[in-house]
Amino acid sequence: MKKYRIEGLDCPKCAVKIEDRLERSGINAKIDFSSATVVIYGENNHSLDELNEIIKKQDPELSLLEDSKIVRDFPVVELTRLIVSTALLLIAIALSTILHGDREFLEYGLFVIAYLVAGGNTILRALKNLLRGDFFDENFLMTVATLGAFLIHELPEAVAVMIFYGLGELLESLALQKSRRSVKELIDFRADEVVQMVDGVLKTVPAREIRPGDRFIVRVGDRIPIDGVIDSGSTSLDKSLLTGESDPVLVGEGDAVIAGTLNKSCVIEVVASATLEKSYTSRMLELVEEGTLRKSSKERFITRFSRIYTPFVILIAASVAIFPPLLFGGTISEWLHRALILLVISCPCALVISVPLSYFIGIGKASREGILFKGSNYLESLGKVDSIFFDKTGTLTKGKPEITRIEKVGQYSERELLEYAALIESYSTHPIADRFVRLVSEIPSYKSVSNYSEIAGKGVKAEVDGKEISVGNYRLLEDLGIEYKGDNGSNKLFMVIDSSIEGVFELSDALKDDSSEALARLRKLGIKEIVMLTGDHYDAAASVSTSLELDGFVFGATPEEKMNIVESALRRGKHAAFVGDGINDAPVIARADVGIAIGNSGADATIETADVVLSSDSLTKVARAIELSRLTNSIAIQNIVISLGIKILFICLGALGLLNMWGAVFADVGVTLVAVMNSLRLLRE
Question: Does domain 371-397+513-615 have CATH number 3.40.50.1000?
Answer without folding.
Answer: yes
